[in-house]
């Protein structure tokens, strides 16, 4: 038995049946949410009926001037699809149809509108005389996002198997994602599904060590949502680990460090490039060729960031700007997801405080991964760590001195790998150094959602963090309190799915 077979091969082989089951759950969850949308739309009168109003594009080439002309075969079906274009979906469809016409539309990044426009003019173009062009745009958005969600769930499962080393636990985490409390947004014309798909895919390839391939996925996630640029933190974390390893090896340290840092900087630049390019695009369209008197205020700034200005000017986003008494209901609406996020962060930090305090620099990821795998094998009744090390000494270790050193490392690391709390629920098989960047990522997102953003958006903003589902699946499998936690978590998800599909689809406020 080799190190590779111990750490990776077995979980991936055992994950095949779970993949097929997860695919059924993912498809069923989307059909369930879409069914709820249709039911609520037919039973409840919408709060705002202006969603179907669609004035002609400002440009000469327009398809919206007469969306339901005499050639449309099924105008009622087209109207039903268009009535489902609510809230931010209106912006995405308008951009796909007419481009970026107004300043506030630049708050929505271009990947989703581009994909919708492409599908409507190719795959679904034959449906235009049947339901109308705007309905085709809406249909393209619905199909695209629901398919992206299914692929996102599959990528989350593959990522979870790699990190958790437990296909059953990874499956439970992925099923939780399929029925997460922000499900209504993943089945609507929002950028959440596309962003989750690209982020989970990038994280999976990052975990497999293909940083350059992961960079492409992370860069595309930055084309879907602005917080996609935060994924550059994973690349930075990997470079920090490699620099630390280079200094410990003391072999050509300075040249190797420079090479590592340059490669990391290039990857981060690629991840930031889509967002920076979009800001430059907005500056060119709005500011260039205008006199000083005609320029918008942000055009004259030392660093003209259109996105920040839009968020602040049109939506009132800013540090502590949402801390008002009248916003207390929105804080209550976001409190469940913020509570789960904080609990997940505290949970993993308390399990391995030494690792998190040292930012994972205390020991290499490979060593800790070996320790976790050997400990997990021992807990399953398989050969002990000492025997496994001696049997595989020809493949893993070079000499007797290395064996003694590695055994000593295992004894020291048992204190780190085992939960530090006396009431801990189970011995986790995952690598704390691998978990660390996900904890840091979620921590930054929680702070941003609570202190800067409209806090009710936290439900969908944090829903693309794998750590939430890993924590929930860990805690639900714990003996004793696991069942009570399971009921509570599923009740929360179910309540928000029903409440969200009712309110959101009828143009009532919801996150």
From TrEMBL:
Signal peptide: none
Subcellular location per the Swiss-Prot or TrEMBL entry: Endoplasmic reticulum membrane
Membrane topology: Multi-pass membrane protein
Keyword Endoplasmic reticulum: yes
Transmembrane intervals: 22-40, 135-157, 169-189, 212-237, 258-286, 330-349, 434-453, 485-508
GO molecular function, one term: alpha-1,6-mannosyltransferase activity
Primary location class: endoplasmic reticulum
UniProt pathway: Glycolipid biosynthesis; glycosylphosphatidylinositol-anchor biosynthesis
Gene Ontology biological process: GPI anchor biosynthetic process
The EC number(s) this enzyme carries: 2.4.1.-
UniProt entry tagged with the keyword Coiled coil: no
Keywords: Endoplasmic reticulum, Glycosyltransferase, GPI-anchor biosynthesis, Membrane, Transferase, Transmembrane, Transmembrane helix
GO cellular component, one term: mannosyltransferase complex
Family that this chain belongs to: Belongs to the PIGV family.
Role: Mannosyltransferase involved in glycosylphosphatidylinositol-anchor biosynthesis.
Protein name listed in UniProt: GPI mannosyltransferase 2
Lineage, top ranks: Eukaryota, Viridiplantae, Streptophyta, Embryophyta, Tracheophyta
Gene: LOC105157964
